[in-house]
Amino acid sequence: MRAISFCANEPRAGVSHHLPDNELLENVKASDMGAFRILFERYQPLLFRHVLFQTQQSDLSHDIVQETFIRVWEHRASLKPGLSFLSFVLRISGNLIRDAVRYRKTRERLESEIPQPFLSERDDPAEALNVKVLREALVAAINDALSDRCRTIFLLSRFEGKTNREIGELLGLSVRTVEHQISHAVKVLHKKLRWYF
């Protein structure tokens, strides 16, 4: 008589692909890898398409979906079989997407802050001196010619890369006020630095 043998990654005998999610989740809570595999096979394609639509990056989407299911397995004891499993994995993947976007933006910002190579005094002493003088004049003009509020708004916009809306929210100002202050700062700085251009 032949016996049915299951590979480690196949559902155990008695775990039906037709079980409703709540029963599969009860089995997963009891560390049933077969029930977990059925849930994975049931929801992985849908979750992948959802994540891919948001990220537009196939590799990143695969990573997020894998991490989502890893977290489900690692926290299986706290699963709530009466609640929607799809909502649960969508919430986990949504948090992972936000983390990935935040990481990417931070990385891009840090990469943009890496100073670009510029001529050293040995390469062109006159150019190096001009850059140094211009930089000092810019710092002095920002500190001396702009009011505290205008300076803060200008620095948040031009040096921190914040949007006008973000600046308004941070400082409790309207977007229009932020726009006006930035415009004023640019005019003042242009006037103060006109001799350098």
Molecular structure report:
This protein has helices spanning 21-29, 33-55, 58-74, 85-113, 125-145, 148-158, 164-171, 175-193. The chain is mainly alpha-helical and 197 residues long. The chain has two domains: 21-112, RNA polymerase sigma factor, region 2, helix turn helix motif (Rna Polymerase Sigma Factor, Chain: A); 125-196, Arc Repressor Mutant, subunit A. Helix 1 crosses helix 2. It is elongated and about 80 Å long. The N and C termini lie far apart (92 Å). Mean pLDDT is 83; it is low at 1-6.
CATH topology-level fold name of the largest domain: Rna Polymerase Sigma Factor, Chain: A
CATH class label of the largest domain:
Mainly Alpha
The number of helical elements comes to 8
Major sheet size, sense and barrel closure:
none
The class by helix and strand makeup works out as mainly alpha
The proportion of residues in beta strands is under 5%
Q: What Rg is obtained from the alpha carbons, in whole angstroms?
A: 28 Å
Poorly predicted sequence stretches spanning 5 or more consecutive residues: 1-6
Write the CATH architecture name of the largest domain.
Orthogonal Bundle
Q: List the helices and strands in order.
A: HHHHHHHH
Arithmetic mean pLDDT: 83
| Percent of residues in helices | 55-70%
Apparent shape: elongated
Strand elements, count: 0
Distance from first to last alpha carbon: 92 Å
Count of discrete structural domains: 2
